[in-house]
Write a structure and sequence with these properties.
The protein is mainly α. It contains six helices and no strands.
Length: about 120
Amino acid sequence: MTAFRLVDYLEHIQQALAQAGDYTRDMDKDAFLADLRTQQAVTMNLIIIGEAANKIAAADAAFVCAHPDFPWQGVRGMRNRMAHGYFDINLDIVWDTVRQDFPVLREKVDVLLREQRQEPDEQ
């Protein structure tokens, strides 16, 4: 079994946030709603973000508790809705999440990564 590495999971979140942002950078909402490929790519990145947050919460509850400003429950809940309710995904919510929530989430992940990289790796 591979050892849990918090930084790796935070980097997965950071990468998925960046990719979803890249996929939608030059789009408006109408273009997003008309582009199945981009919808699927963004949805997959939402699932990746939530799955990484699940792994962090399962392996290091103290870290999650120490960082209540990060929306752990919301991110995990969205992953569950995407993965288990795929045919009922509200693309308006997905679009709003990418445009409104992702920039803030990226800043929070960047801060968490900087903090973790300053501490010696004890794992």
